[in-house]
């Protein structure tokens, strides 16, 4: 079993300025995100995105559209600096979306919506990941809580996305870093 670096998507890799992100042209890499992912790739770490995407439950995009966004994100990273995302796991659910466009089959309590650990557990099972030697980098306290529940460590980004001010979970991260590039360096220093 191998360690991996799990990354949240919105506010960690890409900007949330145009939320919700429904079209490829709305995807904008945060400064240094591509280089951070490339540094993890170069160190031999699988990079796995784990992301809540309730826009599916809200009926704003379907899973095929979300897959197309993710394919575009992968292309952007490759063209930016040769960075590679090895896998993407997302939760399409939301327990109670208010939009009239909501898709009922996705409107439920689940085990994959962070701060629950389901996305990390599924990735670990599918890919042979050692969670005890892995890390999750994200901008939300829910990311830190999901990591802890899965037995992984976490780095909370303090100058991007929610910057840990979302109040999703009362969970302190293992470390803090200003942005993904700093967090990747920290992860490589402490967990390699």
SSE inventory with pairings:
Layout: E1 5-7, H1 33-42, E2 47-52, H2 63-81, E3 87-91, H3 118-127, E4 135-138, H4 141-150, E5 153-157, E6 175-177, H5 180-191
Parallel strand pairs: 1-2, 1-4, 2-3, 4-5, 5-6
Helix pairs in contact: 1-2, 1-5
Query: Which superfamily, in CATH terms, is the homologous superfamily?
Result: HAD superfamily/HAD-like
Number of helices: 5
Query: Helicity range of the residues?
Result: 25-40%
Give average pLDDT, whole number. 93
Provide a descriptive summary of the structure in words.
The chain has 192 residues and is α/β, with parallel strands linked by helices. It has helices spanning 33-42, 63-81, 118-127, 141-150, 180-191; strands at 5-7, 47-52, 87-91, 135-138, 153-157, 175-177. It has one domain (5-191): HAD superfamily/HAD-like (Rossmann fold), CATH 3.40.50.1000. It has five helices and six strands, in the order E-H-E-H-E-H-E-H-E-E-H. Helix 1 crosses helix 2 and helix 1 (33-42) packs parallel to helix 5. The two termini are 14 Å apart. 46% of the residues are buried. The mean pLDDT is 93.
Keyphrases for this structure?
single chain, 192 residues, alpha/beta, Rossmann fold, six-stranded parallel β-sheet
What's the short story on this structure?
The protein is α/β, with parallel strands linked by helices. Helices cover 32% and strands 14% of the residues.
């Amino acid at each position: 079993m191998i360690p991996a670096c799990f990354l949240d998507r919105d506010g960690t890799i890409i900007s949330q300025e145009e939320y919700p992100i429904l079209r490829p042209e709305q995807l904008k890499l945060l400064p240094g995100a591509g280089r951070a992912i490339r540094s993890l790739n170069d160190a031999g770490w699988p990079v796995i995105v784990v992301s809540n995407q309730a826009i599916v439950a809200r009926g704003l995009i379907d899973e095929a559209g979300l897959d197309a966004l993710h394919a575009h994100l992968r292309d952007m990273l490759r063209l930016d600096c040769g960075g590679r995302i090895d896998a993407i796991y997302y939760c399409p659910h939301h327990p109670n979306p208010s939009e009239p466009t909501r898709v009922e089959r996705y409107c439920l309590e689940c085990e994959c919506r962070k701060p629950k650990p389901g996305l990390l557990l599924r990735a670990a099972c599918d890919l042979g990941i050692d969670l005890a030697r892995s890390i999750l980098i994200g901008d939300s306290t829910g990311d830190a809580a999901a990591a802890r529940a899965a037995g992984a460590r976490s780095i909370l980004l303090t100058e991007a996305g929610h910057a840990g001010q979302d109040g999703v979970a009362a969970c302190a991260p293992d470390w803090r870093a200003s942005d993904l590039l700093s967090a990747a360096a920290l992860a490589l220093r402490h967990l390699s």
